[in-house]
Amino acid sequence: MSTMKTCTACGDTKPRDAFYSRSGKCKPCANAASRQYRVDNIESVRAYDRQRRCGTDAERERKAKYVGRYNERIAAWRRENRDKCLAVGSAYEARRRARELKATPAWADHQKIAVVYANAVYLRSIGIDVQVDHVLPLQGRLVCGLHVENNLQLILASENRKKSASLLPEHTAHDIAMR
Hints:
By secondary structure, the chain is mainly alpha-helical. 56% of the residues lie in helices and 9% in strands.
């Protein structure tokens, strides 16, 4: 068996590991052809992706029923075990407060920090769901920030949940260095 193979697209002779199994095209040519197919057939590709992601109507309905039953069971368990839920929640809050306290330097301006939190309370009172977020997370994977006024921002709660303990895309290494 030959260790070399000729690409049917570009005609180059390359080692067999430069080809996908059962393909006459080398990997770069096969990838280029795949990208071109997606460009040429974008609507059908999107429909296929949507169908794979969402499934058929029957599958979506079955998933919705399952999720509904699951949520009902969770809600029932939480009602029956309210004391456990409160204990877990208060333990989480205690850990969060401890992280903040540990990340608050002596030179932090506590009045300015309080103003940021007061603004969040006001915005929530008028119906805007915001949370106070640390631009540089207190416990990030790449960098850990401080609990100081210039590291706090008001952010929509939905965006904060997506972000978790990571940096927002608009914060580059240069922005971090300038803080």
